[in-house]
């Protein structure tokens, strides 16, 4: 049995396990943004990760850890987003089947991506109930292992490897910031950062319009996301039973940003850094802008979580 | 007096002169694009260069080579594009004035960029005649040195440093491709590449709708651009008296691409590589797509010339 809470040792083992499959993404800096805000930024570019998001780290770690007999039955999940693409590609690379349950109204572009990685899609009604029921049915039929998008020990360990690489490249950071949805990236980032150097502050960034992690953190119990309405569509989910205690223990604070600041931050990164990030990836910079006094003069590492946007539907 | 044609030695000297001022831009690869076309691509990302384009290399070299007495009178050019921004920032960094002649109908975004770098703009009617007259007037009044955007020995040497870095990182390339407008980037790239390794082929890529370099190369005399009509707005100019002979001597061939292929290639790079490039930078990949048999199975270096696009006016 795995322990419930990952340690730095687990995350280092995950890194050794996955590093030949993932991209070692670059850390970019921008003198324009540094001058604009009086902060030294270090952007870990997971938008350059395979499938365009950090999710490939966790999915690869989980898929590689399956025994041969588990693996041959395949993996399954319900998701229409980056985790579905990540799990599909990770399964394809191991030569095993992936079964993805997806709401039938999911964007065409996401269906095509997942099919392109050779996964089998089962469509369902667009409700959480239908998703879970359909997933259960798929698992029963196939015996596939369910890989949860974030509330999964091995997935968290994989996600923590992004911060591990960031701190290998730039050990002198004062602060590390990750966006928070279900908390997979954040909990992995927090364990890594605080274990490498407890003096580095870890902040989570969340859209004000989907501030369930903020509320959970303040009240000490998991608050569900209530009708979240944000352009940062990767951050709609609630914290999980594994991710929340890790976040309580290792995260210094959660800060939020308004929708218009998220769009402004996204556009700033596109225009000044010439890289494509998805709205969820802009939430850390947006939260810095809205809480600037915490960051002035500091060396701030930001994990840019992904770059999958539909160019036909940009917010600017 | 400088010799008319730069040598590798001149380009190496330029690199030593400018390297503390410029970004050493990364070379990115994309397994998605490699698999899609059966080619190993190596993209030299000058969209990440200061001011968002390779032009900062040549402008910096030219500005740094001025004597103190020349420099204190400043530099001047007529341009509404990347060269204007590049010259303005290079002048600002040396602490000298820059005078930019710009057609009064230039996009607001370009005026703001140049003013942001502290240059003084003089507006003129949007004709070549008016530009040249106004520039002459500005030079008479200020004594500023005219830095031509491409038909200038020192500018060409600066532009050649991008290929120098590319070949330092990846000496085993089979082919190097640069886009061609006035030929500053292309002639610098060609001298560098053929001097480092004459076995590497050098191709130029040009929009079919602005194929004056192609026609010049085939007929052996400079053909003017006749009503060029292309989305690749950095490639509208004609070859110069210095750039053309270098291109004749060192470039293996010029290939072209249709407008729809340029837009397709631009979108492919945005979507698959998650980086922002301007249309001119997509012309090499577009030309590869239209002439695929020349490149199959080869290691191909492509210089992505810049990333300055107006996000309010995208072609997709």
Structure description:
The structure is a homodimer of 316-residue chains. By secondary structure, chain A is an alpha/beta fold. Chain A has 2 domains: 8-53 and 152-304, Rossmann fold; 56-146, Rossmann fold, CATH 3.40.50. Chain A has helices at residues 8-18, 31-37, 55-64, 68-71, 82-94, 108-116, 128-142, 153-169, 184-196, 212-219, 243-250, 259-273, 279-290; strands at residues 27-28, 40-45, 75-78, 98-103, 120-124, 145-146, 175-179, 201-207, 253-257, 299-304. The first copy, chain A, has a 6-stranded mixed beta sheet, with helices on both faces. A 4-stranded parallel beta sheet of chain A has the order 5-4-3-6, sandwiched between helices. In chain A, helix 9 (184-196) links the parallel strand 7 (175-179) and strand 8 (201-207). Chain A is globular and about 55 Å long. The N and C termini of chain A lie far apart (48 Å). The mean pLDDT of chain A is 96. Chains A and B meet through helix 12 of A and helix 12 of B.
Write out key terms for the chains shown.
4-stranded parallel beta sheet, globular, 316 residues, Rossmann fold, 6-stranded mixed beta sheet, 10 strands, alpha/beta, homodimer
